[in-house]
Every structure is written in structure tokens, then in C-alpha cells.
Model the fold of this input.
Amino acid sequence: MARTQSPAGAASPPARARPVLVDAARHSPAHTSAVLILSAISATAAVALPGVLGVTLDRALGASDGLHRAVTLCALLIVVEVVSDALVAFLSGVTNARSTARIRRRGVAHLLNLEPRRAADHFTVGDLVTRLTSNAAEAGTAPVTVAAGAASLLTPLGGLVALALTDLWLAAAFLAGAPLLLLLLRTFTRSASDSVTRYQRVQAALASRLVEALGGARTIAAAGTAERERARVLAPLTELSAQGRRMWQVYGRAVAGSGILVPMLIALVVAVGGIRLVAGDLSVGQLLSATAYTSLAAGLGAVTGQLNALLRSRSAARRTAELLAVPATRHGSTPLPASGLGQVELRSVTVVRNGALVLRDVDLTIPGGAVLAVVGRSGSGKSTLAAVIGRLTDPDTGEVRLDGVPLAEADPDQLRREVGYAFERPVLFGDTVGAAIGFGPAELTVRQIEDAARAAGAHAFVERLPGRYAAPVAGVPLSGGELQRLGLARAFAHAGRLLILDDATSSLDSVTELHVGRALVSDVRAGTRVLIAHRVSTAARADLVAWVEDGRIRAVGPHPTLWENAEYRAIFADPDGSADRGPGKGPGS
Done:
């Protein structure tokens, strides 16, 4: 089974949320600015309305001139506030979508630019999916949240200023309780930030376990452990529920606190205002305005809501930034020589994984146009060597050259056109079988796709499929050998000067493997071939064999020469000790 504990969080590099949020904001500056301006207009109208209502009431009670203009102004302010809020809602949706798309594009592009092993070293698949979906969506709301939040501050500040302009004694009465409001806000910020971070991490752990279970569904069914696995996958729900309740409790306490404190402040201001009204220092309209201004100045609910959204966005952006902080593969721009035949040179190549040496000071030269078989026991470093040769991973020390050009300095687009891979368990991309074979750096014709399928021994079974090459990949039941043949066809279709088959014929029968071996020589573009081999027949047909043992190259030479060594022959031995010669194979074949 796959691992049960996600490295998310603990294994992630330290990162800051700000660069992600700033980049998202810069992606939609006009929309974000419009949200800020319209929110500010709405807040200004909200602050101005109580004062105009107070004046309107005084003029109505006093039967003074200008009542009609005051009523009209009240209606205008209400219309401005409603229209501004509607436009903010529309632009917020657009901006959130654009910002989320920007964060996801950056995350996916960076992920695909990493060495294949690097992402797996830091994150599980489920954790990556969470970071690029729900976390990116929450982080994408940050620009709008900041803009709307900044504008929302105008409402309490404007209410406080307007209250002071109405009457200083009323403002003083309000300020007497303001420290309690600030304390409530500070407590909410601290508690909410921690609970949001924990909640998002548990979400990622739950997603990781679910993906692992889906990937091992057949094993779970065969083992009869469905109930046990269900319990394991859902185990984080307890903590997720606890953190979710904690978030709502924190938010609820803040709202409840403001729900108690705000009416008390309003009552205090109204009491002082009543005394000032009796004394003749305030009019009825001014007291009405002061009451409304107090509600605006104490409007902690709106600020708390914006702050809560911002905390979630910042926490989510930090998780996205952790992905972006993983060092990407660096590329050069040096072109490969046009006349190159695919000569590969490894110079003192060392690769370390989790503190262990996988390859140790490997020196190897593969002549251009040669077929090299790489053999060795399981765990000897063969697949890592194949990854280094084609730059799917970089060595920790040493250098790899292709036709004299260091791979780290080569133009990446040309390198991918000239270096092809086929794997033991290929993954098919594309809607149809033909598209899956044609998937690669260059567009292919139907003839090229069919020729590649013939070379890989796949054409015959593809012709029997409903729709043939137009058959949908998702609806085609493929055996392990058929899947490998399609993977080989894809590699053959895009073969460059260097083609690497990483145990890509392990599921083929001997006849098909022989056909593929001959096609490599006669039907596929000429170039260097590196074959990770487990069968003696594959090694016997190669020009040279590199014998890998404990991360070192023990010997390089023709198969008949190496076959004289009993330890070399033991690599291909069956569990009972007999050599796997294959049909008609043996030393010198």
C-alpha cells in the first residue's frame, strides 16, 4: 500500500504568502482597483446617509426650507450605495476567478517544471491536488478581500469622525468602550489564524489518504480490508471536525462579543445624547445621526468577516507558496550540434536520495548510434541512471553531456525533442488511442502514428478496437503488454538522437520483444538506445552492456564477454538458480 502519512506541511519548504498574493493582485489591477473604488464609494455613501437623514428630520420637524432637496439627497445616497454594492459583487466574482486561475497556472507550471521526483519528495498527490484546487481558490479571493477590507475600514473610521463632528461628548463616550472592541478583534485574529492553518492541513491529509486508497483499490478489494481502509481514510475527519468547530466558535465568540458590546456602546452614546438633547446642545436629527454613526463606528461584524476571509486566503496562499518554493529545474540555451549522433558522457555522476548514495562516481561513455543495455539487480540504480542520462533528474555532483553539450546548459525544447523515453508503466495522455501515441513535442501525421504503432507491435490490436485509432482511451481495456506497446509506440513516434527504454518491454512476450528489438534498428529513427534490461535476450542483442552494481558501473562490454563472469550470469538467474536465457539465447547470441 502507499504511505499512510502525508509529508505535507512537515516536509514543505518554508515560504511566505505575500509573493503569491501580490502576484495575484497584479494580474487584475484594473478589477481590483475598481472593487476598491466602488467599495469606498459605497462606504462613503453609508457614512454620509445618517447625517443627511438627521438634517432631513430636523427640517421636517421645523418645517424649514430645503426638505425636498434633503429627501432627494437621501434617495440618491441609497441608490449609490445599492448600485456600488451590486457592482462590487459582480467584479469580485470576476476578479476572484482571474486570480485563482493565475495562482493555479503558476502552481501547475512550476510543478511540471520540477524534476519528477522533487514534488514527491515534498508532497503527496492528494496534498498537491488540495493546494492547487481549494487552497488556490481561497488564496485567489485575497485581492478582492484586501480591497474590500480596506474600503470597509472607511465605514467605522468615517462613523467615528462624523460622530466627533456631531458632538465631541458623544465621541468621547464611544471611545471609552473602543479598547474592548480592539481587544476582541485582536483575540479573534490570533485564534482564527491558527485554526484556519490546522484545518487546511487536515484537509490535505484527508485528500492524500483518499487518493492513496483509490490508487490501491484493487489491492484493498483483494485483501478484504475495505472497512479498515475506510476507517483509515476517514480518521482525519475527527480533527477536521474539531478544527472546523473551533473556527466557528472563534468567529461566533467574536460576533457574540460584538453583539453584546455594540448595543452597550450605542446605549451609552444615546444616554449621553439624551442628556445633551435635554440641555439643548443637540437636535433630534443630530441624536438620530449620532445613533447611526455609533453603529457604523462599532461595526465590527463587517471588519471581522473581511478579516476572517483574509486569514483564510493568507493561510491558503502560504500553502501554495510552499509548492512554488521547491527549486525548479534550471535550463540553458545551448543548441545541440545538428550533426550529433547521440553520444552520451557521464563524468563522475553521483546521485543521493534521502541521504543514501544511489549512484556513485559513475563514468560512462555511450558511443553515438550504439545500443546499450543496462543490467543489474533490483535496487542497483538502473532507473536512476536512465533518469540522469535523459535529464529527468540532475546529479548531485558530476556532469552529463549529450554530443558534447552539458544537459544542464542545453536548450530544453530541443532536448525534449531529441531525448525520448518509454517506461515500464506508461500513462496515456489524449482522448483517443491515436492522440495518445502522438502525444509529444511535435505534431504527427496519421501515417507517422500508424508506423510507430507497427514498430511497437501495437497496430494489430489497435485495428481490432471499435474506432481503431479513434477509439477513446478511457473506454479501452488494455493488458499490461498492450499498454507497454502503446507507450513504446509513443516513444518511437517521437524518437530523437537518444531513446531510453526504462524496462519498457517487461510485460511483452518473447516474440513481441524480438519484434520491438528489430524495429529499434530498422524502423525507428537512427540514434543511441539505452535499454534498462532484466532479460538476457535484451542484453544479448545490445552492442554494449553496462553492468550496474550498488550504484557503480562494475563493467562495460559486449554481452558475450561479460557472460563469462558467473556473477554477471547470476543477475539473470531464476529463483531456483537457472539462468533465464530466453528462447535460443545464451552467451554469444
